[in-house]
Amino acid sequence: MIQEIKRIVENYLSNAKLCSIIPGTVTKDGIRISEKLVIPEELVFGNMKKNLIIGDSVRLLRNHGGQQYFILEVIE
Amino acid sequence: MIEFLVSTGGKIYEINDLITKVTYQDTFNNGCSKLEFTYISKNLTIQNGSVIRFKYDNTNIFYGYVFKISRGKGTEINVTAYDQLRYCKAKDTLVLKGDTVTTITNKMCNYFKLNKGTIVDTRYVLETSVQEDKTWLDIIYGSISDTLMNQKKWYLLRDEFGSIALRETSDLKLDMILGDESYCYDYQYDKSIDNDFYNFIKLAAIDKEAKTLEVTVAQDETSVKNFGVLQYYKSIDKKYSTAQAKSMADNLLSLYNKEAETISLDCLGDTRIRAGSSFHGQIEDIKLNRRLVVKSVTHKFLPIHTMSLEVMT
């Protein structure tokens, strides 16, 4: 029973997409955060967006729901 | 009457006479449909993954794959089979860009190598979004509700006898009456103010700098008289003007000031009824006389065909 509840809550949380900080690399169509996923430019926000150069490593803040990504910093 | 075929180990068996019980369940945009049946084993062993085809009165009912077998000491074996949509419960990561429900459905069918049937063009282009670590079904259902909110058109994803279909619900109207005098032998009707019912809406905008509190109220006096005060309270951003807050409150009131109805019907079976079909419901006692859409249905086939259905109100 407890295992079931844990599984359900885990699934729910992963589905709800909580805020989180994610590292990524700038590519020509957006920011790559995993092998499968490149965040499209339209969903990336922040005033550092215009200064990004392809190949930069960045740290992103994902909003609740996972439909906006804010650039926190470029990692040295 | 029934035609039941099983394909297992490279051979096809007709087992009409061995079947003792068949139940078919279908729900509206909520996963795959399910066929449960019981058969007498004799020498035939049905394996997981076997293909099942079931027809009743020459109407196509179910085409799908066995996912579960359970038995006890006797010779009766219970089997559960699902249609192709079962495979779409898998999680994946997608970026939607310039996609419609139609293009996502096509991608899904190609990815899982599913058979395609009628897939209508939904036309509405969804907003760019990242769908990370979600099931294909959830992604499609989410997109269907976005389409509904923007286009007022409601789509349904289902498997039709072995081919994936995407249809508009308004195309699934049946010329059929279910009710008192027609097919229906029992019904259950609930009317409730227990959940999500509010007739008194209170919105509070707190301005921390000016230290003021502006409260906007909307209420339905007749409803308050009948049911007592059922209050909904929410704090809102101070940026809303008084007029905006008032219209928000009015909207909430019209949304929540409705008694929730649930209707389920027990009827003689009709193979045309699936989740998403709509029919004309007519029950004298509860003054029901309008078109209803099936939310879920369970058909039981042997010895006689009956169905219980739940409708959307």
Give the SSE map.
The complex is a heterodimer of chains A (76) and B (313).
Chain A: H1 2-16, E1 20-27, E2 30-32, E3 38-40, E4 44-45, E5 57-62, E6 69-74
Chain B: E1 2-8, E2 11-14, E3 19-27, E4 34-40, E5 51-56, E6 59-71, E7 76-82, E8 91-96, H1 101-112, E9 116-119, E10 129-135, H2 136-151, E11 155-160, E12 163-168, E13 173-179, E14 184-192, E15 200-207, E16 212-219, H3 221-227, E17 231-236, H4 242-256, E18 260-268, E19 278-283, E20 288-300, E21 306-312
Helix pairs in contact in B: 1-2
What does this molecule look like?
- Chain B: This is Phage protein.
- Chain B: It comes from Anaerocolumna cellulosilytica.
- Chain B: InterPro entries: YqbQ/XkdQ.
- The complex is a heterodimer of chains A (about 80) and B (about 325).
- Chain A is α+β, with helices and mostly antiparallel strands and about 80 residues long.
- Chain A has one domain: OB fold (Dihydrolipoamide Acetyltransferase, E2P), CATH 2.40.50.
- Helix content of chain A is about 20%, strand content about 35%.
- Chain A has 1 helix and 6 strands.
- Chain A has one helix at about 1-15, and strands at about 20-25, 30, 40, 45, 55-60, 70-75.
- In chain A, strands 3-2-1-5-6-4 form a 6-stranded mixed β-sheet, with no helix packed on it.
- In chain A, strand 2 and strand 3 form a beta hairpin.
- The mean pLDDT of chain A is about 90.
- With about 325 residues, chain B is of the alpha+beta class.
- Chain B has 4 domains: about 1-80, Roll (Phage tail proteins - horseshoe like beta roll fold), CATH 2.30.300; about 85-170, 3-Layer(bab) Sandwich (Phage tail protein beta-alpha-beta fold), CATH 3.55.50; about 170-190 and about 260-310, Bacteriophage T4, Gp27, baseplate hub, domain 3 (Elongation Factor Tu (Ef-tu), domain 3, Beta Barrel); about 200-255, no CATH class.
- Chain B has helices at about 100-110, 135-150, 220-225, 240-255; strands at about 1-10, 10-15, 20-25, 35-40, 50-55, 60-70, 75-80, 90-95, 115-120, 130-135, 155-160, 165-170, 175-180, 185-190, 200-205, 210-220, 230-235, 260-270, 280-285, 290-300, 305-310.
- In chain B, strands 1, 2, 3, 4, 5, 6, 7, 13, 14, 18, 19, 20 and 21 form a 13-stranded mixed β-sheet that branches. In chain B, strands 9-12-11 form a 3-stranded mixed β-sheet, covered by helices on one side.
- In chain B, helix 1 (about 100-110) packs antiparallel against helix 2 (about 135-150).
- The mean pLDDT of chain B is about 90.
- Chains A and B meet through strand 3 of A and strand 10 of B.
